[in-house]
Structures are given as structure tokens and as C-alpha cells.
Amino acid sequence: MSQTQSPGTQSVEDRIERLKVLLTGQSSSSRVVAGLARSSDSVTNLLLGVALHAADQGRDNGSLTWLEWMLTRPLFTVLDQDEVGLWGAAYRETVTTAAPGTLIVPPVIAQRPASSGFEIADLEAVLPQLTREVSAAPNVSVVPLVDIAAGRAEDPVFVEAMRAAGFAVSGVAAYPDPDAGAASQGAGAGTRLGDLFAGE
Fold first, then answer.
1. Can you give the pTM of this predicted structure?
2. Per DSSP, what are the bridge partners of residue 172?
3. Burial zone of 49 (CB within 10 Å; 0-12 exposed, 13-18 middle, 19+ buried)
């Protein structure tokens, strides 16, 4: 087993143990724990799960989907191939043995068999629900342009949630009502996620 100290100064074993701890929503940092608890079904945690799921598949020379390869590729810029495999093994062990409700990755990926890849179509199927859940988080704010122009102050609940989590996401909406924007674009104007990657 490689004993490389990169990235950082941790050993491979230390990084693997830290990964297992984080996957079950634990950390020495209360802010990290709070952030993970609020993000149990977030898109970010889903994509983390897909990358680790793919790392596990790669251990057995399983073929990866395009999405899995794109998410796994960055791991190889900081870890060697053996360690990526160890991350995959640690992920599989953790999602298999963790107590119900403790994982930060959503069930749609945590419960997927190791032999089953995760495709763009799978992501498209779960994004609407995940987006609704993320949008409902107290440290996520979407502010209409008309409110910004009127000098609207940030919601105190949002500010407090940002302080508690240590981070927040704030976006600008072109329309006061999300349905108004969709309607103005006309039927069929939307772009499917898979279409964004067509031709790559």
C-alpha cells in the first residue's frame, strides 16, 4: 500500500478513515456536521457519491459511464490509481454497513449495486426533486431582480443560516415568479441536461 503523504501531510490510511467519517456525517467541526446534515440529499453530495461509486467500480475494472468518468477523473489529479481504488472500497464498505439515515449521500446512489453505473439519464431523473430540496434550504436564497433594484435587505433567517453553516448560496432570479420565466420562453424552450453535453 502506498504511504505517500500527498495531498497534504496525511497518510493514505488517515485519508481513508477521514472519508469514512465524512460519509456518515461526522466531523470534528460542528460547522461541517451542520452543513452535511442540511445537504443529505443535495446535488453536491449525490455527485460525490457517484464519483466514489465509480471508484469502486474501477477496482474491478468495471466500465464507467461518461458521467462517472468525468466525476472520477479529477481524483486522479491528486491521488494515485491505487488510492482511488481504496477510496472506492472505503465507500462501498461504508454505504453497506452504515446505520440507516446516517449517510450524507442520497439513497439513489448509496443503494445502487456496485455493478450498476450511473448515467446522465439517472441524474436527470432525480434533479427536479433534489433542486426543490436544495432550494428549500435556509442558507440558499434566490432574489428577484426587482427586489435587488428596490434595495431589499437579505432575509435574517438566511443570514443566520449562513452564519451557522459557514457558507451560503445566493442567486439572482430574472423573474419574481419562477413560472413566469418558464412561460415567457414558450413550450419546448427548455434544455435537457444530456443535450448540454452532446457532441463532447
1. 0.65
2. 143
3. buried
In order of 5, 46, 136, 154, 190, the CA distances from 42 in angstroms are 31, 6, 11, 23, 22
Distance (Å, rounded) from C-alpha 11 to C-alpha 22? 17
Question: What count of residues does the chain have?
Answer: 200
Q: Are 23 and 95 spatial neighbours (Cβ–Cβ below 8 Å)?
A: yes
DSSP string, 19-37: HHHHHTT--S-HHHHHHHH
pLDDT digits (tens, 9 = 90+) for 143-182: 777 777 777 777 788 788 778 766 677 777 665 555 544 4
Contact 42, 133 (CB under 8 A): yes
In the DSSP assignment, the letter for residue 176 is S
